[in-house]
Fold this sequence. Notes:
Layout: E1 2-7, H1 20-29, E2 34-39, H2 49-59, E3 63-67, H3 73-86, E4 91-95, H4 103-107, E5 113-115, H5 120-131, H6 145-151, E6 157-159, E7 168-169, E8 208-209, E9 212-213, H7 228-231, E10 234-235, H8 238-251, E11 256-259, H9 268-280, E12 288-293, H10 301-310, E13 312-320, H11 324-329, H12 336-348, E14 352-359, H13 366-377, E15 385-390, H14 412-415, H15 421-425, H16 432-435, H17 442-462, H18 466-488, H19 490-496, H20 498-515
Parallel strand pairs: 1-2, 1-3, 3-4, 4-5, 8-11, 11-12, 12-13, 13-14, 14-15
Antiparallel strand pairs: 5-6, 6-7, 9-10
Amino acid sequence: MKCFLIREASSIFWNASTSYGLGMVGTVASAVAEVRILDNNSKYKRYTNAQLLQEIDRFDPHVVGFSIHAFNILASGQLIRAVKKRFPHLCLIGGGLHTFTMPHEVSETGVDIVVKGEAELAIKPLLRALDEQPVNRNYAFVIGNALAAVLDSIPGLLFHAAHRPARTDTGMGLYVQDLDTLPFINYDLFNLHDYLKYPGDDLYVTNVLVTQRGCPYPCPFCHVEESAALNNVRENSSAYRLALVDHLATRYNPKHLIIYDSNFTLRRKSALDFCLGFRARGFHERMTFFCQTNVVIKLDDELVLAMRQAGCTEVGLGIERLSKRALELIRKNRNYERILHNIGILNRYGMHVQANCLLGFPFDTRETVEEEQRLFASIQDQISVFAVFILQPAPGTEVYELTPYKRWYLEKKFVEWKPSFYHISYNYATNAWDANFFNLDPETQKAIRVMKEHFHTLSIAKMNSPLLDLLHQLERGVAKASFALYCVSPNLERILFWLPTMVRKSLHNYLLQTKHPTRNPNRPEDPAIRPDPPDNPRLDYHPSP
């Protein structure tokens, strides 16, 4: 049994990254199949559909799986139809974040089977069942009576059997209760040759830890009421986390770790044990780390000191808004004093603070945005990086019900977006500002753009890099011209600013990797990467098979 897993390119303009979910599912699947993962989101290469078909043909799999989310479902559907036409004998499986809320839309892409929600518990029995299905290149793949009977017993599937008039839904998928039973992701399954070429390329690729799932907070822009997996908070033990760090350090030798858990300090004892263990094992001498958390939970000296001594150099805070009314409307149960306390204690121990702000809600006006700009400016001396985002309504959330643009992710004008020089200069990750999902008036839109520009420029200045600051000052005038032309003709802007855009991407990405104070720590050179992964990469932790 050979399984080829693909994540099609995302329409988000963001850091090149590997998919945690696809990596974990692929690693679990590798216990029963030969697995290859092609993540089409690298910095150096984007595969066309024709090239992806060639890669599939070269690997000659029995099964092809697709990781699908809102920002790649349109492209994934196009690829799936091409694969089905070229290789009708293959079984196509759809999974990914979109299956948590819109599994029927994933089924409509043309896959044979949808795995809803977390797929780790379903993938092995599913592949075993498919392995017993004879593959005949002369016939199209169909789910016959015998296979359908087996699939009926696997929770969380959606499929169309040949002899049944409607799709079969086997109910809610199982989610992993004990995260310690999961293996460490084998990044060697990925197309790493498309990601890793120069120092610093490992950021968001092989230096990521995700050891927490679920969130207890009812934020209307990301909370999905119906999903038990998304709401049920689970964490790996400290022993597992530290063993994972040891594995990454041994195999991939990162200088900086990205801990992608949404709420690192949600469970204080867990965070404290991890930090103490991190330092006790000497990891702090080899690498630093970034984490993110909310500001609902009050931070204290003991925990923050342990974080700093372990090597935490930067903490991202999900502040989102500072005005009392906005905090109430987005159900952020916090107060201004708590936010100031947490920022202050992080500053006291010398950590960089990234303040996340979210604009573009249906209730936003010019006045509400300008109020947020004043409030965030009042704390700017204590903040190292301001990350100003614009709301993109995710399917399944409360705010999604408020946009008139339902299923926007299936329309080309929303997802086949090519950022202008201006958008790249000011770090617009998506086209949410252009899309204007809640039909905000022009004055509000302008206020959002002004605030984003202001705090991006301030964040560059706070990096204390004369070279970065000079480059940004030079590009501001170019960006202004780019935006003016983009408003008239995006295609013309793309043609005239092609060369500046390419130069800006290459040079600025390199400088961010090498000059950013939290990602280039001064420390002795580490031992070389081991040529092969160890048989049992662990410290005192023994993950279940």
